[in-house]
Specification:
Blueprint lengths: L9 E7 L10 H4 L4 E6 L2 E7 L9 E3 L4 E4 L1 E6 L1 H7 L3 E2 L6 H8 L10 E6 L10 H8 L4 E5 L4 E4 L1 H7 L8 E3 L1 H10 L4 H16 L3 E6 L5 H10 L6 E6 L4 H6 L16 E9 L29 H13 L4 E5 L2 H14 L3 E5 L2 E2 L4 H7 L1 E5 L1 H6 L1 H7 L6 E2 L3 H5 L4 E3 L10 H10 L16 H7 L19 E4 L8 H5 L3 E6 L2 E5 L1
Parallel strand pairs: 1-4, 1-5, 6-12, 7-8, 8-9, 12-13, 13-14, 14-15, 15-16, 16-18, 18-20
Antiparallel strand pairs: 1-2, 2-3, 5-21, 9-10, 10-11, 17-19, 21-22, 22-23
Length: 505
Amino acid sequence: MTARGEHVDVIADVRISGEGRELLPFAGVDGEALYDVIIEGDVIADIAPARALGRRGTVLDAAGGWLIPGLWDHHVHVLQWALGVERFSVRQASSAAETAALAARAPVRSDGRRIAVDMRDALWAEPATVELLDAATGDAPTYILNLDLHSAWLNSAALRREGLVSDASGFVREEAAFAVARVLNDVPAADADAAVDRAARAAAARGLVGYVDLDMTWNEDAWQRRVAAGFDALRVDFGIYPQHLDRAIALGLQSGDPLRDAGTDLVRVGPLKVITDGSLGTRTAACSHGYGDDPHNHGMLTVAPEELAELMTAATGAGIGCAIHAIGDVANSHALDAFASTGAVGRIEHAQLVRHADLARFARLGVGASVQPQHAVDDRDLTDELWASQTALAFPLRSLHDAGANVLLGSDAPVAPLDPWVSMAAAVFRSHDERPAWRAEERLDAETALAASTYGGSLHGSRIEPGAFADLALVARDPLTADEHALRTMAVHATTIGGRITHLA
């Protein structure tokens, strides 16, 4: 009987899905031949027809289930997600008044603050006011975080407590909102780490073997602490923000290096993360044309092009890759310009609005497109209304792939659920309700979406083959033939990292 933490030597009687399965013996007979996958150490040593070789050691009986490469989420705010899933959600509210009333029901924490999350204000019919929020929430400092994390609605007590000044709305945006989130996330380390561990185990139960942690903090200390306490559910690449770049360089951190003083390669140094514009929902993404509700508003660049180039030059010289947040088409163009002028390696995060002429530049410059397909279906109405006048492509997927870009899928959790099947279903079907696919021409095929959900992305996706890491997920159905509901709700029977079981249903 196998259990979490055990090392598997044989995955028996399994069907194999994903890139490369057509090269397996007998794969062409019916596409569902049964195999035994032999694991030695942390890699796949052999793949043979079921029972063709002796089964020695610990055997995981797949019972005809489907084996896929282990899945990655390429964009997660790990602590924000872990705390957010346990916070009070106002997502069901559709107006300022409903949101304020619902937020008033959030529990007051021991520090006196009341926190609510998942606000979606972009299509509210009436304006938000601090007076409205005060009337509902009283004297308890109340913070309502926007789902996109780029703004927050605070009552007067919260504004006073944080020393912030707002207009009559009570909203703070961009860096002020990020600062508020950092304050709210400053919980005792034991509580934070326990939440991260719970969320990681839940992610492993969805077939995830790793994620890129882009929390807005000095992440090395947190991961050293978590690993020392026994964290082992996922692989992690952790990001570095501009305010910490000099520190990272002084310490000699380089992307791909194992976490210092940890004795494991489970956690590694990731990229420099730079946020260069805002978001669609907060109407701050930097765009060529105005927003539908305010034609004079073109969003904003939060990092000047020359400053971005300086940061990327410094990172590149130190061996640190780059992950550049760019949502609007203006921001994407500037980010691509910076990759071209600095020779930096890495990817653009989000790429939600891309000029037609810029599509090919992703491939030409070797810049990955780290995108979150669930955002497209969540924000389809916002896009149709607020970006109606834009001439660039909104939420391109197929266009980026066809142009030769390496597409990497993620969630941006907590903005969307940390669930790779949700991301894949959104990429393949471009809908999550009864409506037809939104901009169906941008759908990815299932095989590309699966590859884009592994570590290497759509161009270099993980393969199940001898010599590959035994980072694997055993699932109930073939994801390449599943319909939208089956893909989104895929049952995961087991997950392994280097052959070690991290989840077993």
